[in-house]
């Protein structure tokens, strides 16, 4: 990529184009013939995607952007800051550097960071950006990361890896062995250079499957943003054989929600109940964790059904998820639906229910949105019921 793209006139054009329909811009004649038009368009598209996800990069003049895929795959600043809270010490090497967002935040916690990137152009772009961002304690090395580790031949306090799924693994069950680098295969090699390894994976990876492939896992972090799980973090310590801690963190506009437990913890007796005054729905990070039976004990709640993962109480409690005030509930029948919901507007969620949201909307002509929140679920007596709620 040409560094001519940093020319003031070109940058002004890119910034002004962010407010214009991209398709219309793409049809224009290139106003800068000495720079490939596709490169300029790529800067516009990638910078546009960075506006909310990477505000530090977006607001800084002189930043260069890689292809849209790199921006889409990179961590957001919110999740990168969280990862940085996990590590400590003098040195860290990132074997899958990418756009370098994680490393920028690692560099604020660790004195020396090494960014490894196989793609030469991306490595060059990231190195330039780190200079612009005044991240002077990050060194960029282009090339195969395992060879880089062997060449440096030194100990790091942490190794960080964000493996990408191989293209030939499409359609298969997501496993770490289907990614590059193959972490399970290379784990012993990594331990030659660090006792602590932090692995980021996509939320699609099943936690039980990940634990089967990995060893010495100390902590699994489940990170969600605006009620969508964004990534799983696997904290590995050489020789560790103790209990595995699961930490869930949910970032939203209203703040942070944290929940922590030890894997395979046995819950006390769980109480089931018909819906009471308040209904509780765990956030997406907790749902991913599978800690459904621990919640009643921790928060003094009752479950609606073994498989519904909705909770209830007569007294409101502080809860990591959505809380609703129950207006009323009824058995799911055509007659009851016609009386209470047909051709009305409501938000619909299904939990342990045979019908999909789409089918319910279509069958009863329910429009999306509004202030009414409905849960189609199964109660403690195995009856199909509908909860009509107001969000608190």
UniProtKB/TrEMBL annotation:
GO molecular-function terms, A-Z: methyltransferase activity
PG-1098 ferredoxin-like domain segment(s): 278-320
Protein name: Class I SAM-dependent methyltransferase
One GO BP: methylation
Keywords for this protein: Methyltransferase, Transferase
Residues in THUMP-like domain copies: 321-391
